[in-house]
Fold this protein.
Amino acid sequence: MLIRLIFILTLLSSHIPLMAQKSLRTQIADLAESISGDVGVSIRLIERGDTLSYHGKHPFPMQSVFKFPLALQVMNDVDNGKLTLDKKLPVNKSDYFQTHSPLMKEFPEGNPDLTVGDALKYTIEWSDNVGCDLLFKLVGGPKRVDLFVNGQAIRDMAIRNTEREMHVNDQLQYQNWSTPQAMEQLLTKFLTSNMLSEKSRTTLWDLMIGTKTGPKRIRGLLPAGTVVANRTGTGDKTKDRRISAVNDVGIIVLPNGQHLAIVVYVTNTHEEIPEAEEVIAKIAKSAYDHYAVEK
């Protein structure tokens, strides 16, 4: 009788992580289905390799999330001696177009003293579209960034067009796409592989921690002081009044020091941006609560 009881207790305890993950999966599914449009999620507890996804293999438009792989290319070029962050990268009025650009607002006549490091900071922290295109031109265009990502064995991601090109033709945004799982894999490789030197990884990590856009997305409901290195992406409304993208991807540092990669894409929703952001924040909080209590 005692042996049988021990066996039953052992069996039940071995299923606790599986049952807990099922609970998290249910929470995510419920949140995803609470909003119109399509939601894709991919999560990985990096140190343990635990993964969970919801529509994780579906393609979603990245919008400014693609500035993260662009930044990886820039820092890889720095590591290989092709660039330095203090290299001058002048911005001229001819580089400007009607778009989101704190850089353009700060320097309406251009800035001959802008550096690669300056452009990278504007691009990652402020999601600056002019800075983004300056960097694309510097590294050889979207095709080279796409090849770099593929070289990291990331297959379900495509980078085809610049910000200016997408502003001319909004349908081109759908050519810059990734699955949630592919972006989660890239985030994990960024943190754990040798694609970047330790110095370059730290530089980009610090910039992502300093992200100013989307404070109500992944970061929105997490405890104060939680470290999050993230990159957002936001699209405009389509002709049928849907928002093409409300995205956030990043790495959360848990209280025990482990790292949680998380990708949440929302596309084709009739809701306004705050409602989509609330769903992203609740999914991130559910994942945080689930993994923060584990040893």
